[in-house]
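Entry 14. Ran structure prediction on the chain below.
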Amino acid sequence: MEHDNTGPAPRPHYVTIRGGQIRLWISGEGANLIVLPGLVRSAESVARRFARSNPGWRVIAVELPGIGYSTAPPGEDTQAVAGRIAEALDWLGEESCVLVALDLACPIAEILAARGHLRIARVVTLGRETACRWKTAGISPPDLSPRQDGTHLFALWSFLRDRHLLVPDDPGLPLDNGEPVPSVDMLADTFVCAAQDPSGYSAAWRYCITALQPAASVATPDLAGDADLDLSEVRLQEGRAAPPPTDPVPDGAIWHDYVETANGRLHLRRAGANGDPLLVIPTGGGSSAQFAPVISGLSGGRSVFAVDYPGNGLSAPPEGEVSIHSLANDLIALLDAMGIERTDIWGSHTGSLVALEMAVVAPERVRRIVMEGPVFIDPGFQDDILANYFLDFTPDKWGRHLLSVWNWRRDMFMYWPWYRVERTAARHLGVPDADQLHLYALGILESGGTYDLAYRSAFSYDTGARFAKLTRPALVCAGPNDQLKNGVAEARRLGPSELVTAKETATTVWWPDPDPDEARETLAVYDSYLRQAVRD
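Output, structure tokens:
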């Protein structure tokens, strides 16, 4: 079984192009080795694998539109994809490279070579024969449209797993030769990338397999696997060009960025390019993706950046114990790395506590804060939550963890807490549609085994004691169906009236399908409060 946890860790980087962004995974130093990972392995695992087996090369694995977190639309065919990849690699300039393509990415490599946009010294394909046998057998993804019962996740998991287990053109038989079977962790990584945009993944498969030509029809040498790749006789100059800093996308939409801080790598979703900074801190457990309405809704005249906690979403895992205090320090390190002296903060649930802690330990870095639904719970309930709320979602080779994640997130919208399935615990939010549940579940799946660390920390924090130390202006609020809206009354009771404004808002704007008028009204409350002047 193949594992990918050895060798140099690749570094992710977003390059902004017309129409979106392409994510690259870069590892090692030396001449440029560009890798197009195909559609059955993640770009990260391929970058790690090729860096391990090709020392002395700078490996640049390109995440293809349709699998992973490249946000540029896949387009209509391989010609469009090749154009986007060429644009994303334009920063290489006159530097030469070797181009390697895996399985269904082979036709994209041939287009790049024919166009001459890159200085390609050699093109090699790996696994073309396997891909052609998929084409012969008519292998294609099943319907991956999100379903209310979550079974589309199983369909995708099984499809990916079977591509490594079964004879390519006889999918009724297990394969008894070839490269090692990927580990469960590698499969889980690939699954999360493909699940990011199921329809985009299906489209990428369709146009790549349509353009695929057999080895006899092309001049490009094809190898069975990367173990057969020998670059010892290739002599190229060392790659020295650096990818450009990540720019905003041209249309003003939310864009992705990574920031290397003193405490580790953090992933951001950003909107707006000019104006005062606003840090958006999400709830625990998943990513900041579900907070898109807040990020976009408050970006007028501001530079908004929403963070994935360490170990959540697309941020790197934490290096030590996680607490609200440690998370506050992580985000202060983020401000340092971004050169931001002072910022407004909007935080929800766990995020509101991190905002509070930042304001307590570094008040000079905080202007105003909005605290939505801060966690105030009694000790008995706190113990009950810590004992029962969090489940083990370790990936399973048959994908059984997917059912747990899906229903865990689904039940959260029906009961508070989710494990108290009783009439008296019913909530009145409504079950989200399948697309929205898919977004919530994906946030947990991409966080992996560290999904619960930031989330847990909220239930071990003495909110009342820290609230008494607040010296920055704060709006404490919650929507009418927020399970933590008791925090509004607690803040009104505990907070100094000259600093704390406590009120219920019309809705929770980032929950599924809020009333549009109520969402606009609530965003206006946030916006108005944050625009007020402060006295230092």
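The chain has 17 helices and 17 strands. Will compare against last week's run tomorrow.
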